[in-house]
Amino acid sequence: MFEGFALDVVDVGEASLRVRHGGRGPALVLLHGHPRTHATWHRLAPRLARDHAVVCPDLRGYGGSSKPAMQPDHSQQSKREMARDVVALMRALGHERFAVVGHDRGAYVACRAALDHPGVVSHLAVLDAVPLLEAIERCDARFAQAWWHWFFFAQPDKPERAILAYPDAWYANTPAKRARMGEEAWDDYRAAIHDPATVHAMLEDYRAGLGVDRRADEADRAAGRRIACPTLVAWAAQDDLGTLYGDPLAVWRPWVAGRLVGRVLDCGHHMAEEAPQELEHALRELLQPAP
């Protein structure tokens, strides 16, 4: 897994991030979602590393990265703090400007990085996500039924007890899922979901999402701040983003001032594991120099 990549732990200030990095060329950071680790990118990252410097961290709180002390408002897992980690990590690795790809919860970190650090983020790709504030404000009965976990995860204490009572059952682990992920990625993921500190930090991500992250998005919208860089929105045909929002690209359009493109991939939610070649093609279209 990740042949030719280095595995390091990098101190970025308030957190230490476990990170795989390899390749040469324009810099590109890949941000995973819940409940995965950086290992979710193991089929895609080597493809991109043929002509990019590819960096795949575990976000703070996830996988092998550190878990900063909990704050009353859960801001230690805010997307703003996680985005600062990413910028600090990339600088530590020698990259002052870079593209950001985020999947699932990592998409919110990627979006926050582009909004807070416009001089640093050259391109943005968000995979299977709409802006966090849009998801909250557009919540209806269909969303509540399909994504009920957002609101359960934000409750105190109860979700930790429920998940840790039987993590493999909670995350519906099956032999087919194991085969789809690959053996090493599976082992890394299972170590994460069986670790109480990681489970707690992952849930703090959701608690921050409904509070400090929502308020950060509200402030950006009120101030007219928009994403300036070229942006790709990609979603999985076999997941429910299109069902919930119709055209996800239309949901993103008010948030993006730069070039905006959309792609639908014929796969399930974990597109880097299920359709790495198709995702690589979509990302390369985004990253190619403007004519």
List the SSEs and their pairings.
Elements: E1 6-11, E2 16-22, E3 27-31, H1 45-48, E4 53-57, H2 79-92, E5 98-103, H3 105-116, E6 121-127, H4 132-137, H5 141-146, H6 149-153, H7 158-165, H8 167-170, H9 175-181, H10 183-193, H11 196-223, E7 231-236, H12 241-245, H13 248-252, E8 260-265, H14 271-274, H15 276-287
Parallel strand pairs: 3-4, 3-5, 5-6, 6-7, 7-8
Antiparallel strand pairs: 1-2, 2-4
Walk me through the structure.
With 291 residues, the chain is of the alpha/beta class. 45% of the residues lie in helices and 16% in strands. The chain has 15 helices and eight strands. The longest helix is centred in the C-terminal third of the chain and has 28 residues. The mean pLDDT is 97.
Protein structure class: alpha/beta
Percentage of residues assigned to helices: 40-55%
Reading side by side through the largest sheet, how are the strands ordered?
1-2-4-3-5-6-7-8
Number of strands: 8
Distance linking N and C termini: 35 Å
**How large is the share of residues in beta strands?**
15-25%
Order of helices and strands: EEEHEHEHEHHHHHHHHEHHEHH
Write a brief structural summary.
This protein is an alpha/beta fold and 291 residues long. It is built from 15 helices and eight strands.
